Structure formats: structure tokens, C-alpha cells
Fold each of these.
Amino acid sequence: MLEPVIVTALLIVLTGWCAVHCALVLAGRRCADRRLELTEIVMALAMVAMMAPALDPLPPVVWSALLAACAAWPALLLLGRAGRPGHASRAGPGGWQHYPHHALSAAALAALVLPLAPTHHHARGAAHPGAAAVPEWTLLALAAYFLAHAACGAGAMLPRPADAARRAGARPVLGPAAPSPRLVAARQSVMSIGMVYMLLGMS
């Protein structure tokens, strides 16, 4: 019976690391898109709050509002770039191509937070039938998507000879170093695994 507690504790630690890594990347001013880092910090903290509700000082309604904003913001940015295809084509890795994933992640988290509102106030951490407000097939479909996203992130962490040759020939850059692509991929995989864990727990 200790396995779920251990897995939850491990995911809380790893998701907390994701929030810290996002903040460090944002402070370093070398991230591909600062707007995505801000939304990812909010999502990581929301996931920690959902997995450890007893330590969460914010009510679920506040988290839902923050997550709804995190979902709307990249969606609006994506719509704005759709009208400027020439400008969108110059976006680098980690930029506008990841807006749909961030919007879906934030929307899914917002949908998961609201049913927990009665639990948060009365019996923190206990299961509540309000979680069934989201259809089970939707939860399973989202879990399959995030599982595939985690697998893609894990694949991006594998070493490639071309990447090693590129790093060997790269010139040193003054100022804050760019975030490691493997750390970014690891962070995205952890976030997706956390989503799978919570979605399957709700189903």
C-alpha cells in the first residue's frame, strides 16, 4: 500500500524540480520563449498542489483561473502567429510549435482542479466523486497523449553524434548559458508523466 505514496512523493519532488528549472531558465534570459516558461512554472506548481493538497494554500478556484489563463495565453499567441506565417517560420525550437501542447496541458489541469474543490475544503487528499465530471474516455485519451509526449521527450534525451559534433565546433558564448536541450526534454517528460499519473488516478 506504500507504492502510491512513494510514487506521488517522487513525482512531487520531480515536478517541483521542473518549476525550479523553469525559473532558473527564465532568470538566465536564454530561454526560447519566456512566455512558455511562465506558463510552465504555473502548471508545475499546480501539479504539485494537486498531488499534495494539504500543503496547498490556494483554493482550487484560484488554480483554475490561473490555469485557464495559461491555456488561453498560448492559444491566443498561436492564433496571432497564424496570421503571420513568415514571422512564425522564424521561431526557434521551444517556441510557437509547443503552444498547442501547453494550451492543452493547462486546460487539462484546469479541468482536473475544479472537481477537487469540495475535497480541498473538507477532506484534503481524499477521493471525491466530483472527479467523474470529466468523462473517463476523455481522461484516458489525454493520458495516452501525454504518455506519447513523455516518450518523445525521452527520445530527445538520447545522445546523437550530430549533436556532439555541433557542440564540439560551437564557439563559446559570453553571458548566461543556454538551457540544456536534454534538461528541457527531461522536464517536459516529467510534466507529461505527472499528467498521466493524475489522469489515470481520476479515471
Amino acid sequence: MAEEKTNTESDKVKQNELEAAVKPEETEGPSQLLIKAGEAENYEDKLRLYDKALNLDPMYLDAWLQKGFVLDRIGRSEEALACYNKALEIDPDHLGIKCLKGFAYNNLKDFEKAIECYDEVLKVNSDDVFSWYQKGLVLENLERYGEAMEAYDRALEIDPTDVLIREKRMKLLGIIFKKETLTDSPDSSFN
């Protein structure tokens, strides 16, 4: 009886070893790595995980986007642009990538290129509130207040409930009032 019990236990151990040998080793795929990156607490860990995901799948669009976003957040906007350009090679019609490029150019103080990015989006989707708002911010940086006001007004036509845009528009009105200028406004009563 003891011998039979030992054989049964031995058979179970062998069976488990066999199953373990046959069972493929579980590895993290790119999507699992992006989930981990989202949970990571610092940007360097996030970047490491994005790179790991991209090593597994160099055509993984979300990894390029998120890596670019993190790089832009930590002041490495030129590297972010390289990520966004790679993402556009994968999906040339992705409007979100063009918006992100606008952010990066704005951070690099290349305001004209930022406007070009937002205009590309607006050519395809003239109701993109976010692009109108961002374009307004860039125009404000260029002190083109009349055009900035038009951008904010257009955004508010699309979404009149957006509190952030309303506040930004009111602040711009304060700047215009202080400077006593709105010479680039198409509305002559503003000039």
C-alpha cells in the first residue's frame, strides 16, 4: 500500500513536470506592458516599458503615442515629435497624432508649426473643439489676439458649455482691454 501511494505521488509529480514543460512560458505582451506603464509611478519606468513594448512590436501605435506624450511631458519634445512621426507612418490619418504634434511644437516655441498641425485637423474635422482651443492658445502666445478670440469663439460655438474655454476667453478679453488693442480682429468694432 505504501509503495502504491509513493507511485501515485511520483506519477503526479511527473505529470506536473510534463505539463510545465509542455505549457508555453507566459511572457508579457505589448498591451500588458502598456497597462504596466500606465500604472508606473515615474516617467523613466514608463519609458522603459514603452521601449520594451516597442521592441516586441515596433508597429504598436499606442506605444509610440504614449511614449511621445511622456517625452513631451518631461521636456523632451523633439524626441516626442520623432515618436509622433513614427506613429503617423503607421496611421497617417490619425488626427489625434497631429494634435499631439501641435502640443510638442508649442512646447518647442515653434508656434507656426503648431498652428499648421491644428489646421490639418480642422481641415478634416472643423468641429474639433480641442484643436480650436489649442490653436487659440498658440495664437495668444503669438499675440495675435483677434485670431485667438476667433478660435475660442469657434470652439464655444461647437461646445458652449466648455467652462475652460469660457475662462480662457474672458482672460483674453482682459489682456486685450489692458493692452487696448485688437487690431487684427475682422470685426472692426473690436479694433
Amino acid sequence: MFDQVSGLPVHVLVIHAVVVLVPLVVLTALAYAVVPRWRWLLRWPLLAGSAGCLAAGFVAKKSGEAFFDRLNEPEFVAEHAARGSLLVWFLLAFFVVSAAAAFMLGGPTPLLGGRERAGAARPVQLVVAALLVVVAVGTGVQVVRTGDAGARATWSSAPAGGVTGVPDADAPLA
């Protein structure tokens, strides 16, 4: 299931969703945490986005395992695999904290007839907002670290021809 789609490795396809979606949702979380007047607009995108990040991260992890089992060269990706496994835990924490923040942080709404959403007690809101910032930044950093390790595994440590089948730059033209 996580191996191939139409002959293409699922991992190579789904990592692009992770690389694009996670930074966007991290920025959404940061805005949600520090700009109370935007919370009415960002609440549901934050929830849906963090759930989508978790799903994409899980599929990336499972498809990565299937992809590198197929290659029979897992030593190239030990660091990338470890960081990818850790990333799934970061994404789970990010989803949980985002869900808590979505329901605990209050703020005004500009909608016609809208009232300010009270949320939890003010000290609790400050703690949840700070926690959301910390977890969001940590998740963003972990995505970069994981992607960097994957790129290094693909382009630096691979034998001539690379993991993806790209010819060696120093090889003579046929």
C-alpha cells in the first residue's frame, strides 16, 4: 500500500506534501498563537492543517520504510529514517497542542453579530499559546532536519548513479 503508485515510489511523492504543508501550518500556528484577532479565521485551517500534517508524515514514514526496503540499501538512510520517525512524534504533539489551542484560546470575531470567544482563563491561554509556539517551531525545525538528512542520503552518500537513478555527474557521456 505504501510502496508504489503507478510505478512511482509513494515516498518520493508524499514527502513534497510534508515539505510544503508543515511549514505553512507552522506559520498558521504561530499567527494563531500571537495574533488573537486572527483566531476566528485561522482556527479551522490550523486544526485541519495539523491533522493533514500528521497524516502526511505518517504516510511519508511508512512509504519511506517500504521504499528503502525495496532498495536493499538502508544504511544510506539511517539518520534520515531516525529523524523521520522522530518527526512523526513531533507532528503528533503539534496536532494535540493545535487542537488544544483551537478550543482554549479566545479572541474577537469581526463577523456580523459575532461575539468575542472567551476561551480558557487568561493564564491558561498564555501557557497554551507559548506551548503552541514552542511545538510549532520545534516541528518546523525537525522537518528541515529530516529533509536535509534525506537529501544528504540521496545525493551525498549514494553510490554512483544515486539512489534515484540520476547519473553520476563525473561519468562520461554515452
Amino acid sequence: MTTDTPASQASAVLVPGQRPTPAVPPEGRGRTEVTDRVAAKIARHAAGEVAGVREVIERGGLRGTRPASATVRGDTVEIGLTVSVAYPMPLRGVAAAIRSHVASRIAALTGLQVSHVDITMAELTAPPAPTWGSSRESFSRESLPEAPQETSRGTARQAPPKPPPRTPPEVSP
């Protein structure tokens, strides 16, 4: 919006009290609509932030599961989530944490009130198994206790002595 002003006033800065009032008040300029898809995406992301949730199923990956969904009706929203939970987390506690966190994030980001959150716990996942030589795990053959080995007569015999540790060959330039 440009107005013709004399050159002497062109460099003057207007403070909010001096600006002309807009023709349409802010509440009458338009509205922002939050679609079902956006609400579902926010809910999926918020559920993934809860401790104990391994995965939030996005598109019905497991047989018999439904993807994350949301239904916006006016100023309220209904959420449906399918999650995978880490074993041995308490399921009721995880479900309560998901409901609370999702409702607060939806309200903070969209202004919508969550009427209810349906949670389907489709899978319990065990922690990853330790692997030999894994960089994340500190397991090695030396850290395991030695167990006596049984013989055919039922008496225990000692395990053979450990071989010396291998050293990598030196590489010459």
C-alpha cells in the first residue's frame, strides 16, 4: 500500500498508534483451517516423542492395523494411532503418556481440543540383541564367565586356556 507523501515526511517512521486502522478487523480477514491430514501428522510426531514408543505406524504396515488418523470437527479433533511399544514398558502408563502428550501438542500447535485418542498397541518389540563385535555393545568373549564343560561321565573339566589376543599386522608404507 503506497500513499503520496511529501519528501519531508517520507523519512518519518510511523509507530503503531499513528498508522491508519485497517478497513477489516483481524478476526474478519479470514481463518486458518487445520485438515485431518495435518492433525494426524502432528499426533504421529507427538506420539513418537513419548518414552517407550518404538514406532508409530504411518500407513497400516502390520496386518490388521490402521494407519494414524485424525478427524477434525469444528474446534475438536479425534485421533487414532497404532504404535509399537518397547518391551517391558508398562502399557497403561505408555498409553496414558501418549494421550496426554498428543493432546497437549495438538492444542499448542493448532488450537484444537482433542476429544479422545484411540491407541492400538500392535506390537511389543524387544530391545536389540547384543551382537559380537558390535560397536554399540561392549560384549566380548573375554567378558563372559567361563562355565565348566560336562564330559560323558558327568564330571566337570576345565575349559581350555585362552589363546593370546590377536594383534593386527603392521602395514608398511
